[in-house]
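The instructor's notes for this session suggest beginning with a concrete chain rather than abstract definitions. Hand out the sequence below and ask the class to guess, before any prediction is shown, which regions might be ordered.
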Amino acid sequence: MTLKNASILVIDDDTDVLTAVRLLLKSEVKEVVTEKNPQEINHLVPGNRFDVILLDMNFNSSLHTGNEGLFWLRRIKELKSDAGVIMITAYGDVDLAVRSLKEGASDFVVKPWHNDRLIATIKEVLKKRAGKNAGEPAEAKTLIGSELLGESEQMEAIFYKIEKIAPTDANILVLGENGTGKDLIARAIHQHSLRAAGPFVKVDVGALTESLFESELFGHVKGAFTDAREDRMGRFEAANGGTIFLDEIGNISLQQQAKLLSVLQNRTVTRLGSNKATPIDVRLVCATNLPIQELANENRFRKDLIYRINTVEIIVPPLRKRGKDILLLADHFNELYSQKYMKPQLPFDKSAREKLLSYPFPGNVRELQYTIERAVIMAEGDELKAADLLFSPIEFAAEEGEEPKETNLSTVEKNTILKVIEKHNGNITKAAKELGLTRTALYRRLSKYDI
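After discussion, reveal the predicted structure:
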């Protein structure tokens, strides 16, 4: 089925949307039928053979359920239509749209869309529909980029979100525990956006002191403070035309939040020591390990800033809830580090796989990564066994929230930290990376052991 031969039905209570889609498609397809009232589905669908139906997620109808689109999607299926259904959704209903895929929708588009993106989506649905009718197997969606891996239901939903939201300029908030891969998701959003050719600038704002925050993000001019020997561009200016990723956004102070909000509202930055405002064009992605409930506490985080950065949220599940993704990732890291250290790739035996699946991974994917790296380096024999998988005592201590006390575990943890810091000549960033911790978490342990 080609686009030129397709019959399209568009159902949306917004007449502007209907007009725009009709004008876009009238020269591209065989037939476009538009309808404002979803009740007409009962009459239109049985009497016509539509190839694709564009269906709005919400209508001003008597249902008032907030998920009218799902109701009418089910109705279309009850009418035995084999049309591919593309849900039309706003940013705030993306989770509902992802749910619609499980209930039989073929795809969804986010308003406002780019015309070429909408046409590409329709073509893809027609292609899938033709393959389905021909008995071809559906193609699994398990990978975005080279590192973001997963076959679980939770990760599949995230992949769909990234694919649909990335081409827009919506601000995105990524929520999840430490080590779940929030930075990989931010990079995937950038790589699949219309800004992919532009810069991707990451800033760990939680690690910036009050004195460095403004200079680092917004820049400064020569003489703005004692060590300002020359003009310096800030991270927002460096990200112009691309994406800026603010990691650990939940850890910044209310004063820092006010400065950030001003920049986001005005879309300009003023370098420290200057009165000249510079326009910026950036896509904002933020991340935090704080739950959304804590961010809603106005004593900790400004609500107006939350609304500004959280057009769409992506919640990354902890590794312990991703099932067999653990084995998929373990195999990936096994191959990666076998190549890196020029060692033969050893398969995991049954005991190793059982150990991986039963361990709760408080350090998430980051902990799994370093566990497999150690196993590849240290293992002997023809297989990787359960005994080769040594999990970090540091993560156990963090998970249990232990108070500083003289125990064997505390001694191991302290000695491990000392050795790694010494190995990297005092470089905290490199030490934290090897230990599988954030810099903030490592600083807490340095304070805990008076190092």
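Then share the key points. The longest helix spans residues 115-133. The mean pLDDT is 84.
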